[in-house]
Design brief:
This protein is α/β, with parallel strands linked by helices. It contains four helices and six strands, in the order βαβββαβααβ.
Amino acid sequence: MYSEAACRPPAGSTYLCVGQDLFSVNEYVMSQYNYSLHVDINSTADAEVDVTDNTHHLSVSSFVPSSFMVYTDLQTLRGLWAATDYGSGIQYADGLLDLFPSIDHSQAAAGLQIGLWLNGTQGCYSICEGELDNQIEQLIAYLEHSRARKVFLRLGYEFDNPSFGYSDHPE
């Protein structure tokens, strides 16, 4: 049975996650909204339209995806509370949640998918040695207080990418 607390969509539906930087997500949502306005204009061009009736238009919030993709690393947690740029655009989880708030503003309109880089094999050793306990506690605090509707946490994402420093033969 579906639960509000579950991180799976209701039966018969899917979640759409869009990323990966602040600009791209904003452009995606706004382009979908813009397209819907053009379709509406073209479909009603020859019809009598009551200009005071705005009920047939979709709002921008209708095009907000289920979640936004952001990246951070366990060592610094950059891109969660404050903006950062790893070279591929602005990563800013809270900024995305602020950009598209829910109607009541108590939580965001969308969730977050967080790609958490562990710094390869060395980072995994640091975790096991307790060297990153403070950062883990900070991450937990962020997740507990996040306004995101749901959080999908991708631990050690792309571990099979050789440039990310995970060993095939850990000792």
